[in-house]
Design a protein that fits this description.
The chain has 4 helices and 6 strands; from the N terminus they run βαββαβαβαβ. By secondary structure, it is of the alpha/beta class. It has one domain (2-185): 3-Layer(aba) Sandwich (Rossmann fold). Strand 5, helix 4 and strand 6 (183-185) form a beta-alpha-beta unit. Helix 3 (137-150) packs parallel to helix 4. It is globular. It is an enzyme of class 3 (hydrolase). Its EC number is 3.5.1.19. Belongs to the isochorismatase family.
């Protein structure tokens, strides 16, 4: 069996200067790249997810409530939807887009350009263990890791390679992940912009 790294939503709009920036996002991008360079054999496979909005309806709010609706972000065709330049993508074998026409937080709601979903891709590559990193710990990382565990993958979140929005939502996320049997490695850090 094999293991995989899932890089969640390390995109310009979620990093400093983006429309929905999370403090420390650029640091997460650089940290993931450094780890991939330092430990090239740690994962058999590396995949990534992208928020990839065309018209996600009520997911965009004016004004946003920052619970169910958010400022416009990661719109297809904009620089905000692109991976952050600090993220080295040379090892990324597949990208799973999510949220084109509805809210989507988990990478397991996404699909590759050929339509294959993340769970099927991982199984086709004999993956049984996943490590999850990216943005934001308390939203899309949380949802992706919970779905990975539900799908039967042994799941770890590398907390030092995630960035969280707020202490309150981070605490809720960590309790949910722990309760679902997700292994949490490292210390959670709330970074300021």
């Amino acid at each position: 069996m094999a293991n995989a790294l899932i890089i969640v939503d390390v995109q310009n709009d979620f990093c400093e200067g983006g429309s929905l920036a999370v403090g420390g996002g650029a640091g997460v991008a650089g940290g993931i790249s450094r780890l991939l360079a330092a430990e090239p054999d740690r994962w058999d496979h590396v995949v990534a997810t992208k928020d990839y909005h065309v018209d996600p309806g009520a997911h965009f709010g004016d004004p946003p409530d920052f619970v169910d609706s958010w400022p416009r972000h990661c719109v297809v065709g904009t620089s905000g939807s692109e991976f952050h330049p600090e993220l080295a993508t040379g090892r990324v074998e597949a990208i799973f887009h999510k949220g084109e026409h509805a809210a989507a937080y988990s990478g397991f709601e996404g699909h590759a350009p050929d339509g294959e979903c993340l769970a099927d891709w991982l199984r086709r590559h004999d993956v049984d263990r996943v490590d999850v990193v990216g943005i934001a710990t308390d939203h899309c990382v949380r949802a992706t890791a919970l779905d990975a565990a539900r799908e039967g993958f042994r799941t770890t979140v590398l907390l030092e390679l995630t960035a969280a929005v707020a202490p309150e939502t981070l605490d809720v996320a960590l309790r949910a992940l722990d309760g679902a049997g997700v292994r949490l490695v490292g210390e959670p850090v709330i970074r300021t912009a």
